[in-house]
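Team,

Forwarding the record for the chain on the shared tracking sheet. I've put the sequence and predicted structure together so nobody has to dig through attachments.
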Amino acid sequence: MTENELNDMLKSETKKLKEINAFIKRSPGGNLKIHIKNGQKYYSLSDGQHETYLSKKKPDLMYLIAQRNYYEKVKKIRENNIKELTRFNERYVPQAEQVVYAGLSGDRRELVKPYDPDTLKMIEGIESDKFDTAPYSEGCRYETDKGEKVRSKSEVIIANLLNGYCDVLRYQYEKPLYLENDGTEVMVHPDFTVYNLITGKIIYWEHAGMIDDTEYASDFVRKYNLYLANGFIPCDNLMITFECQEKPLDIGNVKRIINKIAEG
């Protein structure tokens, strides 16, 4: 079973439960009872305390009550299905081979053949990728756990937290990205280009670290609008974090963003 198939099952169960609840809500309450006396069939409606016989001249009412009673039993099964599927979805790892392989050291990877060769190609491509750094790279003086130099302590935090998910994520710092601006190709350097090794999705992460500086903020807004004009979607394939002197980087938000990226 794939993750998409599992999600489709959850959506289907949820949709059916919604339809059942709507029918139950608009239908008469009580339980329909069927009695056989002297070869004749009779119907009654019980609320647990009182029982009222129903006229055979109102068959629609009997059908409604019987259908409601039926759906009330189905409802319990659907609710349990959703509960079990949700629990399973939270624990299910559809690409177990890729997850384990991505977490192996380079030396150990040489001895193992990955189940999915696309994972190997992606990892090798990221790790062997060479590119020119952003202008003024001499300003990168803070070191991450990977030994690379970045521009701020906040970027060290983001880089190290991303590296903590190296079994499913890889990132590159300030890798060039080409965008279009009024018909002209321009090069930008996202702070982090993040790769989900399981889904293959690429996410670009910009950290605005001096948003209280007017000139810096204006430049960042122009860059942000350029992303939007090129079809990037915030909180999907474009992540943004902010800070200023009075409000430093919120590490909790960074962790939540990384969790979202890791989940695909």
